[in-house]
Amino acid sequence: MHEMDKLNPNNVGPKEKAIDGSVKLRVGIIGTGWIAAEHVKEYKKMPDVEIVAGADLISGKAEAFFKRLEVDGVKLYPDHKSMLDAEKLDAVSVCTYNATHAECTVYALDKGVHVLLEKPMCVTLEEALDIVRAEKRNNKIVSVGFQPRFDANMQMVKKIVESGELGQVYYIRTGGGRRRGIPTPFGTSFIQKDTGVIGALADIGCYSLDMVLNAVGYPKPLTVSGYKLDYFGKNPEYFKAEGKPAHYADIFGVDDFAAAFVRLEGGIKLDFIISWAMHLDTPGDTVILGTKGALRIPSTNDWAGTVGGPMKIYHEVAGVGTETVVPIINKNGPGLFYQKIRSFVEAVKNGGSAPVPTSQILYNQAILDGIVKSSDAEREIEITIPEI
User: What domain range includes position 177?
Assistant: First the structure.
C-alpha cells in the first residue's frame, strides 16, 4: 500500500460520546469581551458545565454581558483576583487583553484552578515561562485556545508529514494576511500598546506558526531574525477609508506587519510573514519542503480555522514527478470552537493532559517574542529557553 493510501480524508474521528450531566464543572469567565461570548455560548451547550462566576475590570460590563447571553445566577466581580479568592472553581476561561493573560492565568493556577487560555498564550517568553512554572507547581493544566488544531484539514497536514511522504523536512514557508484587516470592530483594545502589546503577530501569526510547528513536532527555535512594522496602523487615511475615526492612528501602538527567518532544531528553516494590512491579497501559500516531497497548503484571506483549498503533494512515483491532490475534508458535527472547549472540559473532568499544551505553545511564544526583540535590536538573536 502506498503511504498516501493510509491518509484517509474521510477519517474524521469517532462520534462524541454522551455527556453525563449529573456532576457539573464549576466554571468562571475572566474578561467579558467578544471572544468570551463564544466561550459562554459553547459552555451553555454542555450539560456538565455550570458558569457560576464572571469578572471584568469595566463596571457594569459583566452584568450586561451575562444578561445578553441569558446566563442567570452568575456572581460578578470587579477583577480576577476577587473572583478567584471568593469562589470555589474547577476551571476558568481567560479572555482578557493580551497584556493580562499571564497574570490572570498564574493567579488562577495558584488558586488550584485549571485554565483555558485564549490565544496568544501571552506577550513575552518570560511570561510564558511564568505560566508553565505555575502550571507545574500546582499540578493543573493550561490549554491554549488554538481551535484550528481540531480541523480535520489541519490535522491532515500533520498526518502527511508524519507519514514520511515528504521525507526529512528542511524548509517551511508560512504566514498569511489581510489586505485590509486591522481589527477594530469592538473598540481599540487590539491596537493599543497597553492592552494588545503585539498586534498581527499575536492575533493571527500564532495560528500560522502553530499549523506548521505542530505538523513537524514542535522543534525548539534556536535563532530568529525578524522585523515588525506599523505603516498602515499609523496612517489616518487607512482608518478614514474604513469609515473609522482617524485618531485611531494616534492610538495604534502595535505591529500590523511582521516577517522573520527562524532556525529550528533538526535543521529546519522557517520563513514567516504575517499581516493585518498590505497592498496584496495574500503573501502566498504555505509550503513544506522535504527530501522526498513537498506539500503546498493554499492560503486563506483570514485565519478562519482551516486551509484555503485542496492541498497538493509534489513527489516522485517510479522516478516521475507527480502531484497528488489532497481533497478538502468536510466534517459534520460540532464546530471547532466547541471542540476546543469540550476537549478542555474532558481533560479537567478525567485528569487528562491539556489538548493544546503549554509545552508546545511555549515555543510558539518564544518565536513571537524573538521577532519583537530581533526587530528592536535590528539583528539576529539567539532564543534561549531554560529547562523547567
Answer: 171-334+366-375
